[in-house]
Structure formats: structure tokens, C-alpha cells
Amino acid sequence: MQHVVDARGLDDLVDGLYLQLRALARSERRRGGAPDTLHTTALVNELYLKLADAERLRFGEARQFFSYAAKAMRHILLDRAKLQMRLKREDRRLRVALTDPDVEALTVDPAQALELDAALDGLLLHDPRAADVVELHYFAGLGLDQVAALLGVAPRTVARDWRFASAFLKARLT
Amino acid sequence: MSAAPPDLRACFDHLIDLTPPQREAWFAAHALDAELQQELLALLAADLQDAPLLATSAAALAQQYTPPYDDGAGLVGSSIGPYRLGAVLGQGGSAVVFRAQRASGAGMQTVALKLLRTGLFSADGQRRFRREQGVLAQLSHPHIAGLIEGGISEAGIPYIAMEFVDGLPVTAYADAHALDLRARLELLVTVCRAIDSAHRNLVVHRDLKPSNVLVNTAGEIKVLDFGIARLLDDDDQQATQTCAIALTPGYAAPEQYLPGPVSTATDIYALGILLGELLTGQMPPRSPARADLSRACADAAALPAGMPAAPVLARLLRGDLDAIYNTATAQDPGRRYHSAALLADDLERYLHNQPVAARTPSVWYRLRKSMQRNRTASAAALLALAAIVIGVSLALWQAHVAREQAQRATAVRDFLIELFDASKAGQLPDQRLTLDQLVQRAGTRLQTQTDLSVPTRVELLRTLGEVRMAGSDYAQAGQFYDQALELAQTFYAPTDTAVTRIRLLQASLLIHQSRYADASSIYAALLPQMRADISAAGVDGLQNYASALMYSARTEQALAISAEAARQAAAVYGKGTLGAIRADLVRGNLLVGSGRHADAVQLLESALQAWRSSGRAPDQDFLQGLTDLSRVYHTLGQMAAAESLLRETLATAERIYDAPHDRIALALLNLGDALSLQARLDEAEPVLVRALAMMRAVYGDGHLRVANTLASLGKLELRRRDPAAAARHIRAAAQWCEHPDRHATRSCIETYAIKTELALATGELDQADASSARALAMAQEIFPQGHHWMAQLWQLRAELSLRRNDPAAALALCDQAHDLLARLDKQHGTTAETVLARRASALAALGRPAEALADIHQALALWQQLAPAGNLHRIELLDQLASLHTRLGDSRAARDAARRAVALVQDRSRIEPALLARIEALAGR
């Protein structure tokens, strides 16, 4: 069941995600990485350039693109949260200048990001479509209506999916 | 609602629309199990809560968690492991590189020390880091900056110490020296060869770019950071498999953005981009469709120093270089050059004004053929398989083929590539499937997987047969061919090329199995098709037919077909072209085999000369020509000419290929054998030892070629009269032939002959009897028309008869051997000499010393010509001579002979004590 997203709307979706990804990539550069650094974020930027050309998206790869972008984002978040946890936990000896954290600036406990990741695996078992919605909405940053268009279901259904999914996930956060 | 068991989502969806009292009533009315009820209550409560986590977007949160980076300047002067950090050399997203030093002997060693920004904290991550690092440390190549060591500092920060390279990125170097097109391409060829060498060690770079490809102050290419990207992957498989974290935009291949492991094709892509950047001075345009460098340079604002102006450059790039670039950077990894060596070859072909493979499907075909011929084991076998896969797809895809065929090529490729997944280059050696397992798996899968079309399955079965044939498993290859043919006949007309191809392969399989007569009948039936097929395949078929005829003793017919093959080659390739020269070389090979030595010398000399003067890069066919010609000279007893050709073969092979390589190893083996035959044993030994090490590196233990080399070393020790050392090598060599499913091969004949010699030297007569009988049976099966090895085996059995006191039988065997050699025109070689000496012993034992004397004189003269340095054997011949003179009553001649023998004695321990006593007594008289 291939749902064809209208190309115009699609471009907007991609652009929205691109802005977020680019913000991440920019912050990466501010942190001292040269333009040619090895890092997921810079790459997601590149991923956009690769896949955003309308030609390919029209061939039904939009879903795949956003799904991959979401997975990349999920990986980044998990990776960074783990890093923060380690830096907090590890012995002072381990904190060398290269990795010294700025712990005060955190608004959300990184442990929650880890819990979220585990809870999301649980959600996938209960309700795969709701898990897809989380992926596209929370990680890929698409609006719920856009998610509905991409998944080819009614917006109302996606709204209910999100409500269930967030209750499910919140119930598992400490 | 009550029918189906209530499920969490359904209940939640229902409850969420109700007011709190309605919900209570609902719970009261439904007897849910306690766990589900509790879960629902938790969800309903959570629904009302706010979670800052979900309110923030993942991207914003990730940004918050990302620590600010330090430039590493604060660490200058401190120590990491044994290293003291100096200036910062470079920054990367995941690492900082310092110039660092450590005390080394009397002086200081300077290294480039890479320090990871984020630690590898998990035990798994650290273990993996150490394991990978061990693999990289073994990567040693003059153009790859070596990994010196990797470690994890006390503070848990992983570091990698690498060879420090003082140099410029290759692009900057080329611009700074205003290099022209040729010089730039030559630099890239060197890079490709270095990359290929690493690929053959199963290490993929994954992050090739100008800043990792330096030219040092001595003008040498140095590739940095090999495999480092993989080393830096933390966490589990997941990270490497699904999130391609380590790469550089612009140089990264499309598949690196998608889930799945990377492969050598990834590096090929980056090499293509590097090519574009070197030639146009900018990152080439990237688009899913074909992109041409010539167009990019026409649009370029500024071209690199040393390169011609845009219109001229565009003309130079158009065609071949555009095609090479597009092949290297194809979106689909399967359409790229399947190895960096092939890319290098194509660049070299361009440099030598030869047609490039990227533009000529027939070249792909030939490459595939040569892959099949020469890369047959372990990692090399996988490359061969890949070559076949890509060969199939390209051959079909490039020649403006019908859509249906293109789809089939893709299906074939996908099927095989799926099989590769478990055995791709880049994975650790212990995780790779062997070729046997791979083919087994493919065969099984083909029987169960019937959704592929008939043509596709035919093609796959045939391909699997080819792979098995290359792996010398002829029984299984035959089964695959039979299945392919059976299936093909249900679909194609009997004269369809698809059917012909399978039958040609069946015939060539029969050749491999030494069933030349059977092969000839198949070829005879296919002759009309081969004649009509004015293509490389037709030429190959005719050439193979000629070989089959020759080996089934129909020499005249063989030469006629071979001449026809040469004419067809001239028609296909054009007179005087490389293809025609190649065909001459093949014909030369046939002439050598059929004993037409004078004709062979003439044809081979002129073909090799044509090749040399064409300025074309030599390749394996040229090497084969050199080897064949050296064989003729050897047969003609012209040892110096033979040796000089073998030395040229070795030097050429070393120039064309990076060691270790089977062609270099083969050249070493041939040279070592030639030296050993001339009894220049101390010169031969290091050559053969090198050959053995390289054969092992290329093929792994237990391969035919390794066994051949061991046999040669065994033979060398026998010539040294050191049976203990010989026994070690020969036993190891014989293992190959003793494998249950091995059939008769030339190598086994030779191995069993050497085993016989060993058994005679150690006095194990029954063993000698058994080994020689086995070798003779094989020889008679393979060479019904006779071969000089039979003469060798007969003279060994003559020795056996002499030891068993049956000189009459010994003489008969020697006479038989002598006649065979005369018939084969091989009266000038070492076998002829041994037969003469043995015949003299038999005659002496029969009480016919006068006749024996003539044979011994002849043997001595021949030996002088063949092996002037062969003193150990000369002493034995002189001892025989002295004894004969004694028996004939000429004590003066006997004493002279004994004195000549005694004068040659150097190491007394190498000479049989009884013989030594005998000649010393005679000489002193």
C-alpha cells in the first residue's frame, strides 16, 4: 500500500527536518570539529542532501528517509545521553579536558533518555504503528498531520496513536 | 467487546474518551486480569502528566547533551601512555591528533598520536578496540602509514600511535608541484595499489580523502588512518551495522548513508571522488545519474596548476576518464570496479593508450576470466566470486542488453551478494565463511528458492560451477554444470548461446580433469557455434579445443585448430593488437606442449618482442609467455637463456603486482626450481623459501600451489642429500594429493615421484614401490601419449629393481625410458641424464661394463652442461666411472676418476660414507 505524498508537501517536510538537522550540524562545528569531521550529525546533514532530491522521494523513499533520519537521531540522543551519564558517574580521573561536561546546563536527566529508548522497544511490541508515530514525530520532528500523510492514515488515528504512545512511554519514565 | 481477549490498546482507546466515574463503572463491569488493569491505570495517570522529555524535541535534547569541545591545546606537554604530546596536528570530530614522541633506544621516535574525544568506556568497546588494533598492526605496506600501537590511557582515553608523515595532502602536493595529468594519474595508481593491498588483508579504509592521502617530503604516497574509522566505532554491532557514524560527507559512498555494513566498494567510491578532485581541482558533482568530469571541468572557475586550460582538459577527460570516474563512483556498489587493483589497472591502461575496461565489455569478460584463473582461494576466492558476479552483471548490462537481461543480472548479483554478507572483506577473518560453505549455501538456496526465473537460475548454477572449478572441486563443478544444462534445455533452443556457454564450460572442466578425449568430442560438436561466434568467447573455445586435442595426442589436428583460433583472434581483435599477440602466446604455449620446440621459440620470441616494443604494460599473459619460452630453452638444455627469462618473469611480476601475489610466488617457484635443477642449491633455497611464504600468504595452507612449493623444497633437500629435511617438506606436500576426493593431477605425479626418491634414499623400498606405482598410474591416465615424467618414474623403478637384485628388469625399464625421451625429443634434460646413469648401473650389474662406460661418459657430459655446479651428483658419477674402469682393468683411468671425485668433495657429511671410502682408497693407490 504505497501512499503517494504530494511532492510539494513533501519538500516542506524535508525542509523542516533539515533545519533541525542543520542546527545540530552547526553546533557540531561550533564545538571545534573541522568541516570534514566524523560525526553522525554532520552526516545527517549530508543525508538530507543525498535523499532530498525530489526525484528519489517521489519513488516512495520518503518513508524510508524519515525513518532512517529518526533512527539516526535516536542513536545520537542515546549516544549523547550515555556520554553524559558516564561523565557524571565516572571517577574524576576519567574527566580529561577533552570530555569535560557542562552538567549544570541539563534540563532533562539523561537517564530518562535511556529509559525512553528502552520503553520505545516495549512499545514496538505492543503497537508497531504507535512506535512509528513516535519515531517520526518525536525523533524526526514531523508534525502529527505530516506523520499521518506519510503513513497514509487519518490524522485522527495518528493523534490517538501519539496519545497512547506518550502515555505508555511516560508511564515508564521514573 | 467480551468476545476477543481485551487488549491494552483497545481498552485504552475506549477509556480515554470516558469521564473518571464512567471509567470506574467500566472497570467494575469488566473483569480484567489484575496486571492489565494495573497497566491501564498507570497509562491513564501518565496521560495527565507532563514530561519535559517528550516536550523537548529529540534534536534539541541531543544538542544539550553534547559536550563542548576542547581543541586539545591544554594537553600539549602532558603524557599519554609512553608518549609525550607535542603540537596539535589536526582536529576531527571524534579525535585530536598530536605530534608525539617517545624514547626509543638512544633517540626519540616521533609519531602521530590520535586521541579520542570520547572514551571507550564499555569493556566490550575496549576489547573490540584492542582486537581491531591487532588486525591493523599487521597491515604493512610502503605506502600505508603504519599503525605503531594503540592503547587505552590510564584515564580511559583510547589512543592510536601512527607513523608520523611529514607531507602534504595529495591534491595540495599535485598543485604545489604543478603536476600534469599523467603525473596525477600515476600518483593515484599508487594510492589504488596501496588500498588494494589493504583490501586483500581484509581491511577497509572507510574514510579516504585528500587529508588522509599524503605525499611525504620524499615524494612518496602515504595513506593515513587505515581502518581507524572502524576502530573508533564504540558500542555494539548495532552501531557499525545500522549507523554509519564514521565517514566524511562528499567522499562517503551512497551506501554508507544506508543501513548495512560497508565493504571495499566504499573505498573504490572514495578513490573515484579523489580522482575527480585531482583532475579538476574540485569536488566533483554528485548526482544519482551519470556525472562527467569533462563537464565539471568545463564549468570550473579555476583549474589546478599544471593542468591544461579548461577546453583542452575537458577533451582529455571526455571518454575514458569520464568512464573510469563513473565506474568508480557508481551509485550501486555492485557496478563499481570490484577491486582497487582493477581501477589501478584501468588507469594504467589509459596511461598506456589501451582501451579501458570501463568502456569495453569484452575487457570485463577477460578480467573475469583471469580472475577465475588466478584467484582461487580464501579471500582471493571471494574476490573471484565477486568478479564473476560483477562480470555477469556488467557484461549483460553494458552491451545495450534488453531490460529483461539487465533485471536478471541484477537478480543474480543480489542473490550472490546476499550470500556474501556473512563473508565480506572487512570482517574479521574468523567470521568469514569459506568459499566452500558459501557455494554450498548458494547451491542449497537455489534448489529451495524457486521464485527466480529459469534464465537466472541457469546463470547462477553455471556461475557456481565456475567458482567450484576455480576452487578445483571438479566433481561439484560438474554437478552444477549438469544441473544448469538440464534446466537450460527446458528453456532455450539447443544452439542458443546460453546452452553453448554451459557446454563449453563442461568441456573445459573435462580438460581440468585431464579427460582430453571427452573434452575434444564436446568441442568437435560445438565447432560450428564457435566458428560463428566471432568474439572473445569463440576464440577461447577454439584455443581450449586445441589444447584438448593436443593432450589427447592429436597434435596435427590441435595445431590446425590452434591456427584457426589465431586467425579468429586476429579477426576479433585486429592484427597486431594486444588480443592477437595474446592469441599467439596461447598458440606458443601449445607448440611448447606439443614438442614443436623450434616453432615455439620463434613464435614466442616474436610475440613477446611485439609486446615489449608496443610499450604496453605487461600482464599475466605476457608472464606466461616468458615462462613458456623459458621452458623451451630449458628443454633444449640452454640453461642460461632459460634462467634469464625466469628472472625477467620475476622482475616483471614484481613490477606489476604488489606482494604477496600468486604470480610473483609462481615466478619465484619457477626460478627456484631452475636453480635447484642446476644444483645451485644455496641460491635456490632462499628463492623457494620466499615462494613458499608467499604461496601460503596468498592461498593459505593446504592449497595445491603450496604443496607444489613444498615438493620443490623437498627436491632441493634431496639434491643436498639431506633426506631428513626433505622428508619434512615432502610429507607436507603429499598431504594435498592424499586428500580423498582429489583426482590425478600433474602435481601429484611429481609429488609421488619425489616421494619415491625419498623412499629410495632412506631405504624404504616398499614405500618407493607403492609411490612410484601410484605416480605411474596417474601419469598413464593423464598422458596416454607419454610424458618425460614417466621416464623419470621408470628410472626410479629401475633403481628399485637394482636394489632388489633384478638388474635385467632395471635395464628394460631404462631402455623404455630412453626410448620415450627420444620420442619426445627430450634427450638433453636432467631426466635423460639420470636415465643414462641408471642404465650404466644396470649394465654394470649385468656384467656389461664396457656398455656402461659409454653411458656414464654421456651422463657426465650432459651433467656438465646442465649443472656445472652439481658436484654432489658429479662425485657419484665419477665414482661409477672409477668402478667401471677398475672392472675393465684400467687402474690408471680409475685412479684419475677417483682423484677428480675426491677433489670435488667439500662437505664430507653430505657424501655416503661407503662411496667416500671407496674413492679415497682408489685415489690414494
UniProtKB/TrEMBL annotation, chain A:
Q: Which domain of life is it from?
A: Bacteria
| Any matching Pfam family | Sigma70_ECF
Q: Which SUPFAM superfamilies match?
A: Sigma3 and sigma4 domains of RNA polymerase sigma factors
Which InterPro entries does this entry report, sorted A to Z? HTH_Sigma70_ECF-like (IPR053812), RNA_pol_sigma-70_dom (IPR014284), RNA_pol_sigma70_ECF-like (IPR011517), RNA_pol_sigma_r3/r4-like (IPR013324), WH-like_DNA-bd_sf (IPR036388)
**Span of domain RNA polymerase sigma-70 ECF-like HTH:** 6-172
Q: Which NCBIfam families match?
A: Sig-70_X6, sigma70-ECF
Query: Can you name this protein?
Result: ECF-type sigma factor
Organism of derivation: Tahibacter harae
- Taxonomy of the source species: Bacteria, Pseudomonadati, Pseudomonadota, Gammaproteobacteria, Lysobacterales
TrEMBL record, chain B:
Top-level taxon in the UniProt lineage: Bacteria
> Where do the TM regions start and end?
376-397
Q: Which residues form a coiled coil?
A: none
GO molecular function per UniProt:
kinase activity
Q: Which residues does the UniProt record annotate as the domain Protein kinase?
A: 83-351
Extent of the TPR repeats: 458-491
Report the SMART domains cross-referenced here: S_TKc, TPR
Name of protein = Serine/threonine-protein kinase
